[in-house]
Automatic annotation (TrEMBL):
Pfam families: HAD
Protein name, entry field: Haloacid dehalogenase-like hydrolase
InterPro entries: HAD-like_sf (IPR036412), HAD_sf (IPR023214)
Amino acid sequence: MPCIRGNCAAFPGRLMRNVVILDLDGTVLSVNSFRLWASYMLRAASPHMAPGRRLGLALRAGGALVARKAGLMGHEALKHHLQSLWQRSTAGDGGATLSHFNDGLRRHVRPELQPLLSAMAAGQVDGVLATAAAADYAQHFGGLLGIPHVLATPAIRPRTMPSNIGRHKRDAVLDFLARQGWMERPRILFTDHEDDLPLIEICRTVHWFGPPTALAAMATRFPHTALHQGFTDPEDRRQRC
């Protein structure tokens, strides 16, 4: 198990043996990035857009969110619509709006995971950020954190293509591991949501950032998986290091 306390380079054998799989919302981030992204568009918060474009973005995002609230649009349709809206609204700004949004998002990274993220950025730990978040911002955000590999919901996709979630996310991770030649290496998953049950099933170790009450049921369902509640217990960290 990677040591995320102190100098990870002191454990090269352990770090080389494992592959870390990180969820984004509620795990690397203490918040749900989709909600912040939708709110950012609703407020047209980018200082890099002309007033007319900002107004159009706010009105269209607001209309989509009202439709979702009224039950006229499902979550998947809303995400697809917001992706298209984001792409049209940010076209030609050289990535300025994307950087502005992700700079704000970075403030929500869990501080206890920063040493692990730094180790990944330094190439001491192999891993991947696997998220249902839109690649429109998640790809760039992973790069900001120094994570070289990001699997997210594609920016350009047919309406019938689902988000990178559940079994689709598991399959994307397995395809990625096969391409990297990492299929035989132990997997350590960091997640907070039961949408990742298909991923939990194929991982040796899971660090859970969701409700503590869910751990007992997961322990029964996955008796051969080592389950840990986040990284909140200093004594647990020392034992794992």
